[in-house]
From TrEMBL:
Protein name as annotated: glutathione transferase
Pfam families the record matches: GST_C, GST_N
Family stated for the protein in its record: Belongs to the GST superfamily. Phi family.
Entry annotated with the keyword Transferase: yes
Gene3D superfamilies attached to this UniProt entry: 1.20.1050.10, Glutaredoxin (3.40.30.10)
GST C-terminal domain sequence ranges: 90-224
Coiled-coil segments: none
PROSITE patterns attached to this UniProt entry: GST_CTER, GST_NTER
Length: 227
């Protein structure tokens, strides 16, 4: 398989962490960097793989797949019997993982991505962030995390008492919020959310991948070219 992406970008990192949890090595998954600063994502040869000019994209034989959450689902299924069982062990587990993947995509990500875009990517281009927009979406993220806090008071992870794709999908954005945007309060002030974050961010797969995510601050176009 070939993975086209930007080392350290949020969405590429989501896929690389999944691969790490599955124990995939370089012979199973070849990472091909896409040079965003050179505009490689808009060149015809890349648009033939990802017609929207975003990263990452995966090629596996005659299958071409893009959108990071679709890719991580594919890897979790393809390597079901290898590494961490990221869908749990039953149909019930899988349904709950899918539910919380949808929550991450539709309730959590829209707000955190705007905060990160303004406080990290806009500022990396030497532009001033829209502070009103940041405040609005940080407050909305805060309300979403109230739901997480109540939910995580009853169980260790989002889909139950096992680590899954649903937890994994949050890793890059929360890392950015805490370490780069320097806006950790929404995580740190909630004891159950904080305990959950400490559990998922201390996994060996994440600790092996996390250092590379910092390099994305040198790639100012990445925010608008990741999916």
């Amino acid at each position: 398989m070939k993975l086209y992406g930007v080392p350290g970008s949020i969405c590429t990192t989501r896929v690389l962490v999944t691969a790490a949890e599955k124990g995939l090595d370089k012979t199973q998954l070849q990472h091909i960097p896409v040079d965003i600063s050179a505009g490689d994502q808009k060149k015809p040869q890349y648009l033939a793989i990802q017609p929207f000019g975003q990263v990452p994209a995966l090629q596996d034989g005659d299958l071409t797949l893009f959108e990071s959450r679709a890719v991580i689902r594919y890897l979790a299924d393809k390597y079901e019997g290898q590494g961490t069982p990221l869908y749990g062990s039953s149909n019930r587990d899988r349904a709950l993982v899918e539910q919380w993947l949808e929550v991450e995509s539709h309730n959590f990500n829209p707000h955190i991505s705007i905060v990160l875009n303004e406080l990290v990517f806009t500022m990396s281009r030497g532009e001033d962030p829209d502070t009103k927009l940041v405040t609005t979406h940080y407050e909305r993220l805060d309300r979403v995390l109230d739901v997480y806090e109540a939910h995580l008071s009853r169980q260790k992870y989002l889909a139950g008492d096992f680590f899954s794709l649903a937890d994994l999908s949050h890793l890059p954005t929360i890392f950015y919020l805490i370490r780069v945007a320097k806006k950790p309060n929404v995580i740190f002030r909630r004891p159950h959310v904080l305990t959950w974050w400490q559990l998922i961010s201390n996994r060996p797969a994440w600790k092996a991948i996390a250092p590379s995510i910092m390099t994305v601050t040198k790639q100012p176009k990445t925010a608008s070219t990741s999916a």
